[in-house]
Amino acid sequence: MTSVPPIPDEETAPPAGRMALCADLSRSAGEDPIGTAPHWAEVTVLELAVPVWAQLRTPERWTPAQQAVFEGLRGKVEASGAGFGLLMSAPDSPDQPLAVRHYTRSGQGFVRQDYQSELPQSEWAQGLHDTLMEPARLRDWHPREVPAGPDLHVCTHGSVDAACGKYGVPVYQGLRGAGLRGWRTGHFGGHRFAATAVELPTGLVWAHLSPDLAVRVLRRKVAPAEVRLHLRGNAALPPLAQVLDRELLIERGWDWLSAERHAEVRGADVTLTYSWAGQQGTVRARVEETGRLDVAGSSHKPNPLTVPQYRVTELQHQGPGR
Questions:
Q1: Is the peptide bond before 285 cis (omega within 30 degrees of 0)?
Q2: CA-based diameter of the chain, in Å?
Q3: For 254-303, how does the pLDDT look when each residue is reduced to its tens digit (9 = 90+)?
Q4: Alpha-carbon 113 to chain mean position
Q5: Is residue 36 predicted with pLDDT exceeding 70?
Q6: d(CA 56, CA 197)
Q7: Which Pfam family, just one, is annotated for this protein (predicted)?
């Protein structure tokens, strides 16, 4: 068994006067989370000790240089239409210099590169700038060997939402206790899906994980059909394409994640082209709303959400079948 670093109190403590946990309300409503994964062209994982998370999440505490980085990133998104992910994951050594794990989108999810600097963690804005704005500057960093296999970034940010502290921390601890690469990670959206996690490099984003289920998912010891209502989607694809991609994952099994796939979305029509096991194919479908649910977006704020639910219709295969 692997030893698990202690979890700081500020990460798990629920806010005073909270309402019912939003994750409990989502589960009781029977919400299907598919199509709620963010859509990212790049992901930067900053290895930051938990006390540093608050500074990054508090714009009024940013220095002018840090503000300039986010202004530049906002301009990049507006110009390209491509989103980027920012994850804060606690390293095992809280005093280590700033390190980043940078992922760029590929047909099979994301491709990872790791870098180590000699900067203190307080210089996190430099890590964002060099990975997302001027990647040529990474030649001044020290490349690190990229380990094989997946990492599961579990939101444990209880000071943002109590549901993530209650459900995320046990999942992180269960992964580490099983010898798997789980990371306790700051808020990335979707409190109501706690325990929620981003799996990289596949790009899969998960909902309502338990410690046992998280271990079985990462080891692929459960059929995709059994975790249908735990999959928020693949962050390498746009939301409606995530719905179709889940159907194909269920149909074809975990090996589907090895397929090179690209999606085009026009209204409710989704076309997914792929290269898989040496064969080319195209799948076309309509992704339609089946209705909407009113759910709680937070465990401690009156933040109601109306969310769509989806189904795939008019599914057409061209190329290799099942």
A1: no
A2: 56
A3: 999 999 999 999 999 999 999 998 899 999 999 999 999 999 988 888 77
A4: 17
A5: yes
A6: 20
A7: Suc_Fer-like
What is the number of residues in the chain? 322
Q: Can you give the pLDDT at residue 73? A: 85
Contact 151, 92 (CB under 8 A): no
Helix/strand number for the chain, H first, E second: 9, 14
Average pLDDT over residues 224-228: 97
DSSP secondary structure string, 207-243?
A: -S--HHHHHHHHTT-S-GGGGGGGEEEETTS-HHHHH
Task: State how far the alpha carbon of 176 is from the alpha carbons of 34, 41, 148, 170, 212, in Å.
Answer: 27, 28, 16, 10, 12
Q: CB atoms < 10 A from the CB of 158, how many?
A: 26
Q: Pairing relation of β-strands 151-155 and 182-185?
A: parallel
Please say whether the beta carbons of 296 and 20 come within 8 A.
yes
Which of 41, 31, 104 lies closest to 237 in space, CA to CA? Answer: 41
Q: Are 147 and 1 in contact (CB under 8 A)?
A: no
Task: Give start and end residues of each alpha helix (H) in 81-203.
Answer: 124-128, 162-163, 169-177
What is residue 8's predicted lDDT score, i.e. its pLDDT? 53
**The 3-state secondary structure of 108-131, one letter per residue:** CEEEEEEEECCCCHHHHHHHHHHH
In the chain, the percentage of residues whose pLDDT exceeds 70 is 92
Burial class (CB within 10 angstroms; exposed 0-12, middle 13-18, buried 19+) of 1: exposed
- Measured N-to-C along each axis, helices 169-177 and 211-218 cross at an angle, to the nearest 10 degrees, of 50
CA-to-CA distance for 194 and 161, rounded, in angstroms? 9
